[in-house]
Amino acid sequence: MKRTLWVKIDPWNKEMVTTAIESGADAVWVPEGYADRVKALGKIASIAPDGDLKPGEDIRCCTVTGQEDEPEILRLCQHHRVLLECPDWTVIPLENLIAQNASVVVPVRTLEAAETACGILEKGVDHLLIETDSPQELRTILLRLRNESETLSLVQASIESIQPVGMGDRVCVDTCTLMQPAQGMLVGNSSAGLFLVHAETLQNPYVAPRPFRVNAGPVHAYTRLPGGKTAYLADLKAGDSVLIVDAKGRTQPAVVGRLKIERRPLMMVRARIEDRTFTTLVQNAETIRLTRPDGAAVSVVELHPQDTVLMYVEQAGRHFGHAVSETIVET
């Protein structure tokens, strides 16, 4: 999940504000009269009496001393951001609130405290307020939390057939990330079965490597996004986040820089996992590759029946990109 990360900088410190902006903070909390100075340093939300978010109006502070405080906090969460103050800080009050889906802001001073808050009930808090006087510590906390990623369990699928199917509009996703060998995007005809399509990181005699690019598939195909969502390739746009995945299932978000949609010959790849069959369509070209279980890229024109490739498989269907538990058949 993408957490909201705020940084409290009081008294004013230009270096700390710059560090927060450069390290991916969502907002900075500064003293009154400094909101305009924040805007002069970068595009980021300010929290101040004269800022974008105003303490006491948009943000309410609540002290947690016991279970009797929880109903009022839950009520305030419906209309405000709620900053928790815990005089005797323990995990238990947060566990109780998170179990009730309370979206609260938790102040933290160290990376250890931030990681603890992010791991409560295997879900963590939605919002953190980071309070530190050290630019280096602030950078470390923000970069660690921003690089936080899920790990997916990839499985081996056995190729059943590879068949040319004619022309179609295919999508190259150009990201703002330089991918490494064994990395790519999860793409498929069904959200329940996504193939790991390898990024264009390899040297070949035909075109130069484009390690920021995944020649992902046709416009209708699903791809996995951060936060467990999916999207049609055709719906992606510059500024969106897509999920980069490697052969071990490790993930990281990447920003889309542009899409290239062109009419190209396509081929159908059909693969089986136990009694389930999955398909995806890819451009019929030697530079388009899936990923073997050892992480090696394999060109789709060199695939043969019984070859194995990596996939991500789930049971649930999708409704507007969200997993749902209902009967959905995709063929």
From TrEMBL:
Its EC number is 1.4.1.24. The keyword Amino-acid biosynthesis applies. It comes from Desulfatirhabdium butyrativorans. Residues 157-330 form the 3-dehydroquinate synthase C-terminal domain. The keyword Transcription does not apply. Keywords: Amino-acid biosynthesis, Aromatic amino acid biosynthesis, Oxidoreductase. HAMAP family: Arch_DHQ_synthase (MF_01244). One of its GO terms (molecular function) is dehydroquinate synthase activity. One of its GO terms (biological process) is amino acid biosynthetic process. InterPro entries: DHQS, DHQS/DOIS_N, DHQS_C. This is 3-dehydroquinate synthase II.
